[in-house]
Design goal:
Shape: globular
Largest sheet: none
Length: about 375
């Protein structure tokens, strides 16, 4: 694609993303619905403007940086005070509940679709995430008690980060061909270790820069926002260079540490990061739709729908009722939480990144199954 055409395509995607966000806010529904609809219309199954080849070799890098921004923002909002204030059900939901979702989804994918256990657990890890950007619009429309909102929002923020890191480790294991648990744990420790170290260093440098460096009084808020954005991208790029796919752990670490530090201009930084995330989401979701073909969904057929039903209507209620024990929640509230488990940003963005890698490795069937299953559940 010529440079002029690529510029027009990028500008068009950004414009569509902004319009989608405006419509979503106006209608009070998750913006992901409009993103996916736009992607299907513009993708190869529609008008054919957006295809996996449209961005050339740059697509993995674009999606990777988008994932970095998304994960950093989610981690930045993960405050230790919120975890302390959240009911015990929230803690159980992101631990016991996450394990139930991971293992249960993997078993459902394995039995229904007949895929390998590695790919089944990769899909399961991705679908653990329930992002706050799709939960918040629901809670703005449906009034609930504070403790119900706290549980759902805490689950979304924590699982966004942990699901991304877990999925990255499993994806690396698939690429390397690791089947044994011990090497898998070693791989997890290596990626997590590199990410924590790099993320910690970047967070320390950003903290020092924000607290003790003169950022120019007149432009300090703007410079602080740009400094944090650059730091997130540097953390991702540096960790990924040292150890493949360690970048997600790095930006998560940097986001958590910086978000819990006493830094100036925190509100401005948070608002800015949210705006940037909304822009990069346009690329992620439309890229996901461009990788999706209707014949893949047709191939999955009733088996794919069965997986989606099991995830939404069997596993979700099971993990909620197992986590929300005691008398703090009514039965009605438990059922409400059971039916509010929307998947969105992290499953779509990371699945897109993995699908590109699988296609480049010649594993088109695995890529199709990954994207098709994730899309059906979303």
């Amino acid at each position: 694609m010529a440079a002029e055409e690529l510029i027009l395509l990028v500008a068009g995607i950004i414009a569509i993303g902004v319009v989608s966000q405006v419509l979503a806010a106006r209608l009070q529904v998750p913006s992901i619905l409009f993103y996916l609809a736009a992607g299907l219309i513009l993708g190869p199954e529609g008008l054919g403007y957006v295809t996996p080849a449209a961005f050339g070799d740059a697509l993995p890098a674009i999606v990777g940086l988008a994932v970095a921004v998304i994960v950093f923002e989610g981690a930045f909002h993960l405050k230790r005070e919120r975890l302390h204030e959240a009911p015990g059900a929230a803690i159980r939901l992101v631990t016991v509940g996450a394990v139930i979702a991971l293992v249960g989804t993997a078993v459902a994918v394995r039995l229904a679709l007949g895929t390998t256990w590695a790919l089944a657990f990769l899909i399961g890890a991705l679908l653990v995430a329930t992002g706050p950007t799709v939960i918040t619009p629901i809670l703005q429309v449906v009034p609930v008690r504070d403790r119900v909102a706290a549980v759902l929002e805490t689950e979304g923020i924590v699982n966004d980060v942990t699901a991304a890191i877990t999925a990255v480790v499993i994806f690396n294991a698939i690429n390397i061909g690791i089947d044994d648990p011990l090497p898998l744990l070693t791989l997890f420790a290596e990626r997590l270790g590199v990410g924590v170290v790099v993320g910690g260093i970047v967070a320390g440098l950003l903290y020092y820069g924000l607290r003790y460096v003169d950022l120019s009084p007149g432009n300090a808020p703007r410079n602080a926002r740009l400094l944090v954005l650059a730091g997130a991208l540097v953390a991702y790029g540096a960790a990924d260079t040292i150890d493949t796919e360690a970048g997600v752990a790095a930006v998560a670490t940097a986001g958590i540490l910086l978000g819990n530090a006493d830094i100036p201009y925190e509100d401005e930084i948070s608002s800015f990061k949210g705006d940037v995330t909304l822009v990069v989401l346009s690329f992620v979701f439309i890229a996901l739709a461009a990788l999706l073909r209707f014949e893949v969904l047709a191939t999955l057929g009733l088996r794919g729908l069965l997986v989606a039903v099991v995830v939404a209507l069997v596993l979700r209620p099971a993990l909620v009722f197992a986590s929300a024990t005691g008398g703090r929640f009514t039965t009605g509230e438990k059922w409400f939480m059971s039916l509010v488990g929307p998947r969105g940003i992290i499953p779509a963005s990371v699945a897109t990144l993995f699908a590109i890698g699988l296609r480049d490795a010649g594993r088109t069937a695995a890529a199709d199954l990954l994207v098709g299953t994730v899309f059906l559940v979303i």
